[in-house]
Amino acid sequence: MKRKAPLAVALMHYPTKDRLGKLVATNITNFDIHDIARACRVYGIDRYYLIHPLQDQLMFVERVLDHWNVGEGSKFNPMRKTALRDVKTAENLEKAVADWGHPNARIVATAARNLPEQVTFTFQSFKTTLETENDPYVLIFGTGFGLTQDFMKTCYGVLEPIRGASPDDYRHLSVRSAVSICLDRLLGS
Fold first, then answer.
1. CA–CA distances in Å: residue 29 to residues 16, 97, 137, 159
2. Cis-peptide, bond into residue 136, ω within 30° of zero
3. Which of the four pLDDT bands, split at 50, 70 and 90, describes residue 69?
4. Dihedral sign of CA atoms 161, 83, 98, 62 in order
5. How far apart, in whole angstroms, are the C-alpha atoms of residue 84 and residue 58?
6. Of 110, 151, 106, 112, whose CA–CA distance to 129 is shortest?
7. CA angle, 60 as apex, 99 and 98 as ends, to 5°?
8. Considering the domain boundaries, does residue 2 fall inside one?
9. Cβ contacts of residue 39 below 8 Å, gap of 6+?
10. Can you give the pTM of this predicted structure?
């Protein structure tokens, strides 16, 4: 069955935690721009937002996008231009949701850790929701060592963690890998 609900993906660089649990704003990486955009394009995501409170980080993304959309990169690799067509930046989640045109979108976050106090969607239940409901959703991914607990509490729900097969339950995937796995589980055939 095909997805009915409008769906955006956002990669949030704040409010995130560092390895010591301190509040930080992480840097945007070139790989996260390209690789997540490609995954979003493959799975038909409506919009991919890179969210960061600092203008110099957002300007970095805009320079990369300009290179591939109108600069030398657009001639060098036209497929990259296609993958980046739905990438946008925003200073915060509220501005991203407003830009997308769905101010009442439901926010579903992801986390590698268990959050028993949150409403949790299994991959199957969220897939069913996306196939049967018309309400817009934003699927949020964090960077660093995850989104803060205070932010997570504001979300409509949380998607269950990705569990692999390591004997020690190791779950520290790159965000690029996590996005790809989640999108495939939710939207793959």
1. 15, 22, 25, 24
2. no
3. confident
4. positive
5. 15
6. 106
7. 10
8. no
9. 176, 179, 180, 183
10. 0.95
CA–CA distance, 32 with 40 (Å, rounded to integer)? 11
Query: What does the pLDDT read at residue 113?
Result: 85
In a domain, 29, yes or no: yes
Tokens (6 digits) for 163: 């569990």
| Per-residue confidence band for 143, with pLDDT thresholds at 50, 70 and 90 | very high
Q: Residue 157 corresponds to which tokens in the numbers above?
A: 């729900």
Q: CA end-to-end span of the chain, whole Å? A: 9
Whether 1 maps to a domain, the answer reads no
Q: How many domains are there within the chain?
A: 1
Check the CA dihedral 96-98-99-101 and report its sign.
positive
| Residue 45 included in any domain | yes
Distances (CA, A) of 169 to 101, 161, 183: 39, 11, 21
Domain that holds residue 147: 7-187
CB 92 within 8 A of CB 108: no
Q: Which residues face 147 on adjacent strands? A: 16
CB atoms within 10 A of CB 78: 10
CATH of the domain at 57: 3.40.1280.10
Instruction: Write out pLDDT tens, residues 11-55.
Output: 999 999 999 999 999 999 999 999 999 999 999 999 999 999 999
